[in-house]
Here is the input.
Amino acid sequence: MNRRKRSERKKNQEVFGGPSPYIKRNIPFFDILDEEQLQIIEGQVDWLIENIGIAFRDDPTALSIWRKAGIKPCGEYGDLIRADAKLIRKLCSFAPSKFTQHARNPNRSVTIGGVNQVFAPIYGAPFVRDLKGGRRYAKLEDFQKLVKLTFMHPNLHHGSFVIAEPTDIPVSQRHLDMMLAHMVLSDKPHLGAITEKSRAQDAIEMVEIVFGAAKLQNDVCIMANVNTNSPLLVDKVASEAIQVYSGRGQAMVVTPFILSGAMGPVSTTAAIAQAMAEVMVCCAFTQLVYKGAPFVMGNFLSSMSLKSGAPTFGMPEPVLSNYVIGQLARRVGLPLRCGGSLTASKIEDAQAAFESADSMHSTMMAGSNFTLHAAGWLEGGLVTGFEKLIMDADRLGSYQKLLHIGLETDENALAREAYNQVRPGGHFLGSDHTMQNYKEAFYEPKLSDSENVESWEDSGSKDMRERAYERWNNMLGNYEAPLLDASKKEELHEYVIRRKKEIPEAWY
Here is the structure.
């Protein structure tokens, strides 16, 4: 390798390297409710669990598990779970308050829960958008690029899973290509497939190839994220995913997806209580499947336009829900997952900036331990934006410093020696303290342009979207795959080839 290439590689590592696998929070949580208000909401949660109930539909095995625990399903369809709230809370207490998801590169492992916060990109969009290619259905090539970018960006700690749906691969088989991409193109932790029981099992078996059966038996090596079918319904997709992942001691993230006024009452307070009831019953179910299985309490509560029915983001109601769910999750003793940089905007414009900033900031201050959709979200989650991914992730760096560093009060922070050097009316630019600290004194976003207008014009008068476009293309040009044992890589490819032969192609 010549000197120029070595220099370029070193520069690339400095720009795209990751100093920390996750954030250890050092500032207080933002708690907005007093004890009386919290008890009122908890009373509503218990009322919902005991008197209204949560249905577990189309899954006889799940109902059998409840029966073995002494809880008889009831209701019109015989699938409604009503239980003593104290029992549900006791079962929830068996889930750990924090756990580590191991990455195949141990330096990338993340601890979820407590004061730790983990950022992951968008999940589930069928479309992608970039500045030159516009809006289009995502393909496997797009998905692989997004996995690479997530791997390379220092402010994203976790790979998510469906960063964008590779729609050029049959629905019945695409989970295999997505799992393979995460395992080969990145060494960060990621989520697993959930849309059908056999697909969840494929994910577990591929994880076992990478980590080995013994590791999987003792540690969390994969998480899976499912939604309840709000209001008050757990469908077969969710209950079977819990049985597969929790049954192997792996971590489940269960998230009620509630649009207030549609999947819940047009009341933020009622929707928060409903979300808590749904997720706590699911947590209790995981503990019946496997006592001590890790569980993450999810929250995705959105307001909506009552004129059009469209979800709205960054509004005061979901912001409030983040703060309150944070308080309630800590009282239950469960790790929390919230949404991140959410917006209904179609491109990276002022609306996207405002809505994403308000949504992400409340997520951060609420204490979300695992933040899905922290970067890349556009158009209400229908689109993964390449520029949006890079712009959001760039902003996450400032949140990391705010959460982890906070305001320092040590001798260096007080800078007393600097005052002995600088006379009244002078400046601190050349003082010893400034020279010793200037490199790390302030967070410097890679995409923001703070230079004078002449410098900006000389550089082409580029806006942030153009700078983000150049940055992600530059990142991909410098991508190098992380090391993976050749035998494991071969075994993964063989598994995917074999399973694709066994699974009929289905496009819906």
User: Anything to note?
Assistant: The first strand starts at residue 23 and ends at 24. The first helix runs from residue 3 to 16. Residues 155 and 397 are 6 Å apart (CA to CA). The chain has 19 helices and 17 strands.
